[in-house]
Specification:
The protein is of the alpha+beta class and 359 residues long. It folds into 3 domains: 4-99, no CATH class; 109-208 and 291-359, Alpha-Beta Plaits; 216-287, 2-Layer Sandwich (Double Stranded RNA Binding Domain), CATH 3.30.160.20. It has helices spanning 4-21, 29-68, 72-99, 122-142, 171-175, 261-287, 327-331, 336-356, and strands spanning 111-117, 145-153, 159-167, 180-186, 197-207, 221-226, 242-247, 252-257, 304-309, 314-317, 322-324. It contains 8 helices and 11 strands. Helix content is 46%, strand content 21%. Helix 1 packs antiparallel against helix 2.
Length: 359
């Protein structure tokens, strides 16, 4: 239960921040930016805290009215309001508890989306293309921008692999649970016998890293320039040169092929920073004893997370046991909202249980 003392602490901190922001000349630019962010983040929390405080006060007043009123009509009305508010109060407290959960520092960031065809040959490449279009349409519905970084098209269509930058507010918060193996069950267009095949594609969502997050020393990287050409397709550029960057301490290799070597280097460094930042995040998470109890998925790229079954028109997320018979809507992007909302809600429930249990 969230105590009144805790609510007063939140309100006091919010008032202090409001006062501090009213005297900008007393703070450095860096301090002012930090205070502004905290004030913005704390606003919805204090709003929920004040609503809970007001609800608790009101239910006390209604209880007294029910006990003291001698007017049967007023007593009945107060009783109805009391019961209605009593039902709402636990939801209000849960809402505040969720807002008080420790935030993932990367949640508000943009993200690097990587999709690679897995087992299944041509069908896996086609499925990788389907997934990329699904995320493109979902991003559009969220007001985000998708910029293709690199892509290797398959001869039959789709992608052997595709990497894109998804920019916007809160991209990583909504897409981070998409990392893992996505499996498809359907009859390939090339299959004359009408047999159902199972193919797979791997999705990785990495939070975009800034220069200040990851310091890449020049002596830690090797940059090679080589001849390369894309395999064609609407998303892929053909070039006579490519850049390969090797991060020597970790062995991570990023290859980027575009017409401009300057763009190749910039985009390759962007991907390298994201992968190194993700590596640091994984190390930090593994050090937390309760981490595996506090998330929906392990983040393991090899974990099978979802199946798209075309004959039955259903999508199943195996981590939370969610099955929706909305395959077309989900692949069109619009139905993905329901899947993601359920994943976020389950993750919040797990973290709340862990917090209440003292983990």
């Amino acid at each position: 239960m969230i105590t009144e003392e805790r609510i007063e602490q939140l309100v006091a901190r919010y008032d202090y921040l409001a006062h501090a922001l009213g005297t900008p000349d007393q703070h450095s630019n860096e301090e002012f930016v930090s205070l502004s962010k905290e004030y913005s983040d704390l606003g919805p929390v204090v709003e929920a805290a004040n609503a809970l405080k007001a609800g608790r006060s009101e239910i006390g007043d209604l209880a007294e009215m029910v006990a003291a009123s001698e007017d049967p009509e007023m007593k009945e009305l107060a009783q109805e309001e009391f019961l209605e508010l009593k039902e709402r109060l636990p939801k209000m407290e849960r809402d505040l508890s969720i807002r008080l959960l420790p935030k993932d520092a990367a949640d508000e960031r943009s993200a690097i989306l990587e999709i690679r065809a897995g087992t299944g040959g041509d069908e896996a490449a086609l499925f990788a293309g389907d997934l990329f279009r699904m995320y493109e349409k979902f991003a559009e519905s969220q007001g985000w921008k998708v910029e293709l970084i690199s892509g290797s098209s398959a001869d039959v269509g789709g992608f052997k692999e595709v990497v894109a930058n998804v920019t916007g507010k809160g991209v990583f918060a909504k897409l981070k649970f998409e990392s893992g193996v996505h499996r498809v069950q359907r009859v390939p267009t090339t299959e004359s016998g009408g047999r159902i095949h199972t193919s797979a594609a791997t999705v990785a969502v990495l939070p975009e890293a800034e220069d200040v997050d990851i310091d890449i020393r020049q002596e830690d990287i090797r940059i090679d320039t080589m001849r390369a050409s894309g395999s064609g397709g609407q998303h892929v550029n053909t070039t006579d040169s490519a850049v390969r960057i090797t991060h020597l301490p970790t062995g991570i290799i990023v290859v980027q092929s575009e017409k401009s070597q300057h763009k190749n280097r910039d985009k390759a460094m962007k991907i390298l920073r994201a992968r190194l930042y993700d590596l640091e995040r994984e190390k930090l998470q593994s050090e937390r004893s309760s981490d595996r109890k506090e998330q929906v998925g392990s983040g393991d790229r090899s974990e099978r997370i979802r199946t798209y079954n075309f004959p039955q028109g259903r999508v199943t997320d195996h981590r939370i046991g969610l099955t929706l018979h909305k395959l077309d809507q989900i692949l069109a992007g619009e139905g993905l909202v329901e899947v993601i909302d359920n994943l976020i809600a389950e993750d919040q429930a797990i973290k709340l249980s862990a917090m209440e249990a003292g983990f």
